[in-house]
Amino acid sequence: MTIRIGLTGPIGCGKSTVARWLAEDGAAVVDADAIAREVVEPGQPAFEAVAARFGPGVVGPDGSLDRAALGRIVFADPAALADLEAIVHPAVRPLIVEAVEAAERAQVPAVVVEAIKLVEAGHARECDEVWLVECAPSVARDRLAGRGMPLADARQRIEAQGSDLVERLVRALGDTRWRRIDTSGSLDATHRVVRDALREALGAR
């Protein structure tokens, strides 16, 4: 039996690193955010819907989506973010379901759905458990700044994505089907936490 693990948390907290470790330990990882980027490529229906909703300012000179420009709009305006999610989530969902089912047919020990918007898109309820990857906001800001993101943009995105994430998880799952993975410490310490959590999850199947 394959266990389904949802992986979520604010930007800059290390979800991709945790997902990579899980893949190294035999899990199949479905990257919802990568799929979301695919469905808004030029020529896709979601791209046309995003351009129609947000205007030519979110389309770059090469005709592709200007993600930085779009991010500045939606992370400053909750209503705009909700509009974007209403366009993208329905396009992403069937592709995630297909990937999860393929992993289960392959009988991998665990399939991991990695998504910032795991709760909002409805995937959290379909997982056996959800891992909230989190760290101190200052750590996340430093990591994003190290990737070249302006500090103001980093602060804005962290606040928009993580301010009430615990409350949303509790509303969706109660108090028992999710766990915290704190990545504020060293890589080695965090890796041990992740391996222990995976071992415990697999043992509870």
Describe the structure.
The radius of gyration is 17 Å and the shape is globular. The chain has helices at 15-24, 32-39, 45-54, 67-74, 78-105, 137-146, 151-162, 165-173, 187-203; strands at 3-8, 28-31, 110-114, 129-134, 178-182. It has 205 residues and is an alpha/beta fold. Helix content is 55%, strand content 13%. The mean pLDDT is 90.
Tags for this model:
single chain; 205 residues; alpha/beta; five-stranded parallel beta sheet; 9 helices; 13% strand
Q: What is the secondary structure topology, with strand pairs?
A:
Layout: E1 3-8, H1 15-24, E2 28-31, H2 32-39, H3 45-54, H4 67-74, H5 78-105, E3 110-114, E4 129-134, H6 137-146, H7 151-162, H8 165-173, E5 178-182, H9 187-203
Parallel strand pairs: 1-3, 1-4, 2-3, 4-5
Regions with little confidence, pLDDT below 50 for 5+ residues: none
How many strand elements? 5
Helices and strands, in order, run as EHEHHHHEEHHHEH
Strand percentage? 5-15%
Rg: 17 Å
Compute the number of helices.
9
Helicity level, as a percent range?
40-55%
Summarize the structure.
The chain is of the alpha/beta class and 205 residues long.
